[in-house]
Amino acid sequence: MKTRLIGGIAALVLAVIGTVLLVNYVSNADRRAQSSLDPVDVVVVEKPIPAGTSVQELSSYVQIKSVPSAAKADGALTALDKGSGQVTSVALEPGEQLLGSRLINPAERIMEGAVPVPEGMQEVTILLPPESVVGGTIRAGDLVGLFVTQTDPTNAQIASTQLVFDKVLVTAIQQAPATTGTAQEGTSAVPSGSSFVTLARNSTDAAKVILSAKVGSIWLSKQTANTPESPKTPVSTSGIFQ
């Protein structure tokens, strides 16, 4: 009789303990589930976004939406930093959360149309204004002539310009978009910014290009495979009218 009583009490105690543990587990599970549903704001793509779109232009392509915290992608942005000056590195599709890794400095972007570097060559990039790149019409794959203008170190009033390289291959070019607005038929909109022009040269020529950009100015002419080799004769200030 006493044994059965003790067994009954033990069973009751175990039942109470089990019930308490079950209630605690369910309560904790509810808290975990509730935590995962806590809404957070993220930037979500609403319309297809072309690669190279600036952060300032993204407002018309995206919306701020609330999603469960568990559904927020790692690195997803919660707002747009319109002063960052960054651009999208790739094209983005509707429904994507905008990741910080998708935004890069414009100088880091490899533009579509970049061409392979010929064997034995290396790439060097220079920054040029629109007028120095044939009005912004140069594209990857074009051949260009590279002119360098330098001032006489002994007389600042005298400068000279010389064609340094013929048929230089442009492997990539990054340009600011053209100024918006209408242009007359047969004309193009005026370029509104400078261009990063990447050229393929050997190491010695690349050094000359870099030095020329540092101590002088560079101007490119558009050439073709049939453009004849030009004499490398410098033209000085005093010789313009000769």
Overall average pLDDT:
80
Shape: elongated
**What percent of residues are in strands?**
25-35%
* Number of discrete helical segments: 2
Main sheet: strands, sense, barrel: 6 strands, antiparallel
Low-pLDDT stretches: none
* Total discrete domains: 2
Structural class: alpha+beta
**SSE run:** HEEEEEEEEHEE
Oligomeric state: single chain
Task: Please tally the β strands and state the result.
Answer: 10
> Helical content, roughly?
10-25%
**Spatial extent as radius of gyration:** 33 Å
What would you say this structure looks like, in words?
The structure is a single chain. Helices cover 20% and strands 30% of the residues. It has 242 residues and is of the alpha+beta class. It has two domains: 39-106, Alpha-Beta Complex (Type Iii Antifreeze Protein Isoform Hplc 12); 122-239, no CATH class.
Keywords:
alpha+beta; Type Iii Antifreeze Protein Isoform Hplc 12; 2 domains; single chain; 242 residues; two-stranded antiparallel ribbon; six-stranded antiparallel β-sheet
Short précis:
By secondary structure, the protein is α+β, with helices and mostly antiparallel strands. It is 20% helix and 30% strand. β6 and β7 (155-175) form a beta hairpin.
Draw up the topology in text:
Layout lengths: L1 H35 L2 E7 L16 E7 L18 E2 L14 E2 L17 E7 L14 E10 L2 E21 L19 E7 L1 H13 L1 E7 L11 E2 L6
Antiparallel strand pairs: 1-2, 3-4, 5-8, 6-7, 6-9, 7-8, 7-10
